[in-house]
Write a structure and sequence with these properties.
little secondary structure, 2 strands, Pectate Lyase C-like, two-stranded antiparallel sheet, 0% helix, globular
C-alpha cells in the first residue's frame, strides 16, 4: 500500500533512503527535507513544496511534479526519467514543462 501523505507538513523531515514509491505527497510541505537517495518513483508530488530539499541521488522516475516548487532544491544525480513537469518551478526559479499532456 502506498503512503498517503497528502497535505502533510514534512518540513525538515529526515527521509534519507525512504521508500516512498507511489506515495501521495500532493500539496505536502517538504521544505528543506532530506530526501537523499529516497525512492519517490511514481509518486504524486503535485503542488508540493520541495524548496531547498536535498534530493541528491533521489529516484523520481515517472513522478508527477506538476506545480511543484523546487526552488533551491539539490537535484544532483537525481533520476528524473519520465517525470512529469507542468508549471514546475525548478531550482533556479524557471518554470519547466515536459512529459505533460
Amino acid at each position: 500500500m502506498q503512503a498517503n501523505l497528502k497535505n502533510c507538513n514534512l518540513s525538515q523531515a529526515q527521509l534519507r533512503l525512504a521508500n516512498l514509491t507511489g506515495a501521495d505527497l500532493s500539496n505536502a510541505n517538504l521544505t528543506s527535507a532530506d530526501l537523499c537517495r529516497a525512492d519517490l518513483s511514481k509518486s504524486d508530488l503535485k503542488n508540493a513544496c520541495l524548496a531547498a530539499a536535498n534530493l541528491v541521488e533521489a529516484k523520481l522516475i515517472a513522478a508527477d511534479l506538476s506545480g511543484a516548487d523546487l526552488r533551491g532544491a539539490n537535484l544532483s544525480q537525481a533520476d528524473l526519467r519520465s517525470a512529469i513537469f507542468f508549471q514546475t518551478i525548478m531550482p533556479d526559479g524557471t518554470i519547466h514543462n515536459s512529459n505533460c499532456s
